[in-house]
Amino acid sequence: MNRSTESAKMHEIPLSERLPGARRYSSSGKMMKYDSLIELGLVEEQASDNAEVLGLMTRAERDLETCRLLQKTDEEWAFAVAYQAMSRSARALIMAEGFRPRGARGRDAQKTIVTAAGVILGEGHKSLINKFDRMRRKHQNFLEDPGRVISRYESDQAIKDAEELMELVRGRIRDKYSQMSLLNGGAQLASR
C-alpha cells in the first residue's frame, strides 16, 4: 500500500478516533483537536519515520550538551542553543505523533512547532509550553538584535526547560514506540 492510499484510508476514520485523547488544549488554554491543527494548515499527516525522529532527538541531545558548554562563556548563545534543542525535540514529538509541521521555515514555522507541541502535550504542560513560546520570541529577538542581553539566570532556566521538554518527549516516544531501542542495538533515546 503506498503512502497516498494509506493517507486516504486514514482520513476515512475521524482523527479523534484514530488517536486516543486527540482532544487537547492549546498553549493559550483553549480546547483544540488535532483536526484543527490540520484545518488551520499548521500540520499535515505523515507516517512517522523512526529514523528521522531519532535523528532529531540525537541532534537535540548534542545541542543540549553544547549549550551546557557555552553556558560558561556565552549566556546568549547557550540560551539560543537550548532553544534549538527544545525546537528539535518538539519537532520529533510532532513527527512521532504522525504529523509534520507545514509552511515555510522561519518565524511562522517555529510558532507552529510550539503550538502543535502544546496541543500534543496537553493542558498539564501548559506552563512549560508558555516558557517555550517566550523562549521562541526571545531567541528570534536575539538573532535580529545582537545587542539584546540574556542573563545567566535566563540561560540557566532555558537549559532546565530544554531538559524538561526533552525528557517529556523521550517518554512519549518510548511509550509510543516500545521498540524504540531502535532496532537491535542501534542508537537509543536514553536519559542522560
Could you name the CATH topology? Four Helix Bundle (Hemerythrin (Met), subunit A)
- What's the helical proportion of residues? 55-70%
Q: Specify Rg, calculated over alpha carbons.
A: 17 Å
Shape type: globular
What's the short version?
With 192 residues, this protein is mainly alpha-helical.
What does this protein structure show overall?
It is a single chain. The chain has 192 residues and is mainly alpha-helical. The protein has a single domain (28-180), classed as Four Helix Bundle (Hemerythrin (Met), subunit A). The protein contains nine helices and four strands; from the N terminus they run ααββαβααβαααα. It has helices at 3-12, 15-18, 34-39, 50-70, 75-96, 107-121, 126-144, 152-176, 182-185, and strands at 23-25, 31-33, 43-45, 99-101. The strands form two sheets. The protein has a two-stranded antiparallel ribbon. Strands 3-4 form a two-stranded antiparallel ribbon. Helix 4 (50-70) runs antiparallel to helix 5 and helix 7 (126-144) crosses helix 8. The protein is globular, with a radius of gyration of 17 Å.
